[in-house]
Amino acid sequence: MTTARAPMTEHDLDAWLSDTTATPTQRAELLAADAALCETIPDDGEPGAGVPEFMGAAKLVLGDATLADLAATLLAARIAEREAMAELQGAIVAAHQRGVSVMELARQSGLTRRTVYRTLSR
């Protein structure tokens, strides 16, 4: 069962900020952002629930990044993921030509056999 995690307290925020200076307005925005994230991101018991989302909010609130900056980071990650997948697919084809079985290709690559078969049928 998932539940909402508890919102950050002033003390938690002080610990999180450490040596970072934040204005009273920024502090209020950070606490409000965390409270809103607590309502939308369930606590599944895994450490760090909501941490990446809070980091994005904090970067924006503290002036370390704009929405455009964060969008560009996401785009770069998507491009890198596509390139990594293309390299992996090329390696799968080459390994299969060397006689490696589909099951072994799936095991070593972490992909499903279906994905390996789709890669080989291109």
Please give a handful of descriptors for the protein shown.
mainly alpha; two-stranded antiparallel ribbon; 2 strands
How would the blueprint of this fold be written?
Blueprint: E1 3-4, H1 10-17, H2 24-40, E2 42-43, H3 51-61, H4 67-97, H5 102-109, H6 113-120
Antiparallel strand pairs: 1-2
Helix pairs in contact: 2-3, 5-6
Describe the structure.
- With 122 residues, this protein is mostly helical.
- It is 68% helix and 3% strand.
- The protein has helices at residues 10-17, 24-40, 51-61, 67-97, 102-109, 113-120, and strands at 3-4, 42-43.
- The chain has a two-stranded antiparallel ribbon with strand order 1-2.
- Helix 2 (24-40) runs antiparallel to helix 3.
- The chain is elongated, with a radius of gyration of 21 Å.
- The two termini are 42 Å apart.
- The mean pLDDT is 92.
Rg result: 21 Å
Uncertain runs with pLDDT below 50, 5 residues or more? Answer: none
The end-to-end span amounts to: 42 Å
Helix content, binned percent:
55-70%
* Mean pLDDT figure: 92
List how many beta strands DSSP finds: 2
Write a short abstract of this structure.
This protein has 122 residues and is mainly α. Helix content is 68%, strand content 3%.
